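== Item description ==
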Amino acid sequence: MKRILALQFAFDRMIYDVHKIDYDPIKEIDTFWNQYALDAICANILQLLSTYFDGGAGGNSLLKGEEMQEFATAFYRVLIAYCVANYRHIDLGKMQLSEEAKARIGKELELSKKVAEFFSRLSK
């Protein structure tokens, strides 16, 4: 029970961080996208859902407990950052993703576009 309360407190504290003078939602968003690829995000969310629905009984766990907590924390931080950026009307064009992250995202989007176009042709 103590662990759950500690996690709850940590997650609650993240929302209060937005009121700090030096809080920068763009920096939070940059940090997230520079750290995680789309396929890793998908796999991590699926693992979190699997843990929720079947207690992780599947056994093919990619993340350990601490890594899962780290991802969930980063994911929550980026959601808060997007919410704050939207609320404050901050231009997301100010993001400064690393060249590696830009290339990775571009490659992932191009691949998903090809898959979407393939299924679109099949459905016609």
Residues 99-122 form the longest helix (24 residues). The chain has five helices and no strands. The radius of gyration is 17 Å.
